[in-house]
Amino acid sequence: MPAVRMIFGLHNHQPVGNFGSVFEAAYRESYEPFLNVVEEYPEFPFVLHISGPLLEWLLAERRPYIERVQALVRAQRIEILGGPIQEPILPNIPHRDRVGQIQTFTKLLGNVFGQQIRGMWLPERVWEQGLVSALVEAGIEYTVLDDFHFQGAGLNSDQLYGYYLTEDEGRLLKVFPNSERMRYLVPWLEPHECYVYLKQLAETRPGAVVVCADDGEKFGAWPNTHEHVYTRGWLRNFCELIRANRTWLEPTTFAKAVDETLPLGKIYIPDCSYREMTEWALTPARFREYRATQKAIETNTRAEELKPLVRAGGFWRNFKTKYAESDEMYTRMLQVSNRLASLETQGQLDRELLEAAREALYRGQCNCPYWHGAFGGLYLPHLRNAIFKHLIEADNLLDQAEGREGPWIDAKVADFNLDARQEVRLENDRLVALISPAQGGHLYELDCKRTTTNLLATLDRRPEVYHETIKNSLLGIEDPNMPATVTQQVVFKQEGLDRLLVYDKYPRKAFVDHFVNAATTLDDWVKGTEREQGDFVRGAYLGQLHHDADRVRISLERKGHVAGHPIRILKTITLEAGSPRLTVNYELSGLPASSELTFAVELNVASMAGNAPDRFILSETGQNLGPLNSAHDVPSCHRLALSDGWLDLRASLQWSRPGPVWIFPIQTVSQSEGGFESVYQSTAVVPRWPVEPDSHGNWNVQISWSLESASQLAEPLKLAGHDHLTTARAGS
């Protein structure tokens, strides 16, 4: 029997919606060169997990790579791990989808590689004990978690060299602890450091099974790693180390370890993920407290003994409370999943359409945009847009399955976002509009079904812990909150990031109602230094739904205050069957006769690229004002458009009263693999009007938002179909 069995595993993943150039770069820098080296070492079996999105790309674009992996599988040199096909966080999706995603991927992997799939990679190692039932039901025998998970269950480091049984409702699953020590040695330190650690285990823990499984991208795709791993020969030297020490060191797989060794015992593991993930789930204030506590422990003479006894960080599900945008995707996903599950009980529906909808739903569950940590994740618009694209696509397919054809209209009232308050969903054959009366009467989602685009997939500017790192670095101060690891180097991808550290006081959505000081400038507004004069921005509105044969309306009323004056706003949002347009009528009443108020309505438009030749802002005269990430202070207009040629989508906006308009980009500052950078999120359009009430203290304005085909508008000067807007008397 070998003194030490070592399981070496790779998790290769690219998320749904990532750019093809990113897939290609990771393949060229990491996936292919890794195989080039290890193929030369037949004594080095390893474990490979290729996520579903990446596998689909490889099958379509790099078939020779798949054939090379197939050959290694036939030679029993690779164990393929399964998992959920589109790499969701399993606790973030319903039980039925957990089982379905795993079984779908198991079938695909069996067809491609011809190997029985026994184990799986748990996405982001986000664990809850109730997952056992879903994994076993899906046919999984074992998985791997971090040793951090096991320490949370009360084990010490000497008890982590094998695998354990865990159980839920009588179902048994085998779980392996993944060595954090090995993950921090490989491939950052020289292979000799691994030799020292493994040799020590051989002498002190004979029979140990040690797991080193981590992201495959750190073998070449992460910054500066390709030269280190391949040019300077780290991987080849590591393989030579294994070859030279086979008398006591046996590289193996999970399957062989399960078949050749006994479990160390039974354990129940608390809700957890890897250590860094638990830290990222914390709020910035709580994270700083946590880091201070960790620093205090590190100065204690019993530090190594105390660390495992202190439960660190937060709970993954709280990313949905930390980031409202994550919760928006989550609740939208649940709506689609529940609708699909309901329609499946109706036997007469087209099964092919239902299966296509399920595939789109699964893609819309991919985990990466639902959270944010060391890399972009939630902060990357193209990943969020991909989630909504597939969820909207799934809904479109379910419409087809139900036989919804021609112009139609529908409206529903329910607690769509699970906040114990009711929201309104207006829908026709062209659009879906989700409105939150309790949150300022905001429109928080607007889907164009034709392009499968959510024009309100926005992101608020909010403080992050690493923003302090940016500020401190520019001041030459070492940041005590940020540990110096490979993923947290202070690298600035551009200048002036500190000037973009502006934080929003309200959600960046649409039909956000403001009363502003007439002296406020665009610069004041962008910097957030303006003072709101009213209480309508986030105030609750009372809603009443009106459903006619060919149109639906939601009337939203709030009695609030502006500069000490009681004022009433009634805004009515209307959607007609077959129309690509939302019309919103504002009626202000109770206005003081000597009103000097300025009313503004904010609309944020997202899901378009900020700086590309075919994405631009159009003035009312058809002039190209510049890219979507440009700022403008337009003295007066009554219409404009944001156009995206790649999406073939034009968001045309018009209001019945001409007035000045602010246009400016919403840019966040986030961290990525390459360093700190600004990211364009949306374009804010804020028309404003000096309020001049009539003799009854009333004033009104009507706004139209139309989603049209950019290519089919023959004349860019005309924002088609908006000539119906008029300035009517309030209450008429």
The biggest beta sheet is recorded as: 12 strands, antiparallel
Task: Please report the distance between the alpha carbons of the first and last residues.
Answer: 90 Å
* CATH architect. name of the domain at 4-273: Alpha-Beta Barrel
Strand content: 25-35%
How would you portray this structure in words?
With 732 residues, the chain is α+β, with helices and mostly antiparallel strands. Among the domains are: 4-273, 7-stranded beta/alpha barrel, CATH 3.20.110.20; 512-665 and 682-732, Beta-galactosidase, Chain A, domain 5, CATH 2.70.98.10. Helices cover 30% and strands 28% of the residues. The protein is built from 20 helices and 26 strands. A hairpin with a 2-residue loop joins strand 11 (423-428) and strand 12. Helix 4 (95-113) runs parallel beside helix 5 (131-137), helix 16 runs antiparallel to helix 17 and helix 17 (351-363) runs antiparallel to helix 18. The longest helix has 21 residues, at 324-344. It is elongated and about 95 Å long. The N and C termini lie far apart (90 Å).
